[in-house]
Amino acid sequence: MWGVLCVRVRGCSVLRxxxxxxxxxxxxxxxxxxxxxxxxxxARGCAQAAGRSLSEPRYRLLFFxxxxxxxxxxxxxxxxxxxxxxxxxxxVVTLSNSVPVQKYAEQHELRVHNWPxxxxxxxxxxxxxxxxxCLLKEHVISRFPxxxxxxxxxxxxxxxxxxxxxxxxxxxxxxxxxxxMQIRPKRFDVGPILSQELYPVPEKITAExxxxxxxxxxxxxxxxxxxxxxxxxxxxxxxxxxxxxxxxKVNSSMSYLVWEEQTCAEIDQLYRALGYRxxxxxxxxxxxxxxxxxxxRSQPCMTGSHCAAVPGSLFYQKELNTxxxxxKDGWVGFRTIKLKKxxxxxxxxxxxxxxxxxxxxxxxxxERPTGHSTTPLLLNTGVH
Length: 384
Prior knowledge:
By secondary structure, the protein is of the alpha/beta class. It has helices spanning about 25-35, 40-50, 70-80, 100-105, 140, 165-170, 205-225, 230-235, 265-275, 345-355, and strands at about 5-10, 10-15, 60-65, 85-95, 110-115, 125-130, 150, 175-180, 195-200, 280-285, 285-300, 315, 320-325, 330-340, 340-345, 365, 375-380. Helices cover about 25% and strands about 25% of the residues. Strand 3, helix 3 (about 70-80) and strand 4 (about 85-95) form a beta-alpha-beta unit. The longest helix has 21 residues, at about 205-225.
């Protein structure tokens, strides 16, 4: 039987990339290489000295993680501890005393190492990295006979980088998933894939909701991968050079709207990707304001001069208590505006727009190119 890489779709197996080599031979080769390298790694030598077979699914595991996404995998690993269980030993590496992984480890009496002061005397078999944020060097990776595994919430090579879930929602991807890979030194997210599971992106889901779902999926896939680790390593697949995209960190400048360039759908995606962390913002009378309680695409009931609205123009929909803003291909609505304090759409209209003709427009915001003044460029799209 020929070896293949297994990619699952919500529990169903899909075959990808026949490698053209007998699976059993590959698995045996990996095991033989691990045993032959006993002199290179303390973990390898300790496993043999203790009479343990590395083919048995029991691991001494060192977990590197930080945030809530990582906690889900740590929980599953902790639940897999005990006599005869998948995990024989579990210790944790964190970056700060305040991160969720640190708190979980302390609550469950797991030994914690504060990076970079890691004690490797436990002689671990495999490492697991989830949302850690630090590049591990080759001398660290080489301490683990099975290498270090990484759970990444995307279908690599799509959305390599620190914010894959955010960019999945921002760009309106219909399909995402989780990848388990072996990490390599010097670059993030380029290692060979051991397993993947696909996940169709539900309509109108937020990045926060999607991240929570992928955390559970990733934890399940990690356990499945560990149970078949020698076979998964034997059948690992290098990432394709085609279709690679980068998911840079989220920053507050992404929350500013450019009304003449962004469509209703793009603003909706930005709100679902970012709104739970950073409110959408725009400029009004030279100062930034926050737009809250997004209601999506809306159609104002307008007559006369309102029909000639340009991007950034404002219209108060009294029946729905919603402030509508004209964008590239239509109107979007918000029910709350924040200046110094939160105001309902009605309060903002009555207090600032009702008696004004010249200020019924939001202005787009753009930063100047790098190396120039940091003063924002206000894109006045005309006065309604």
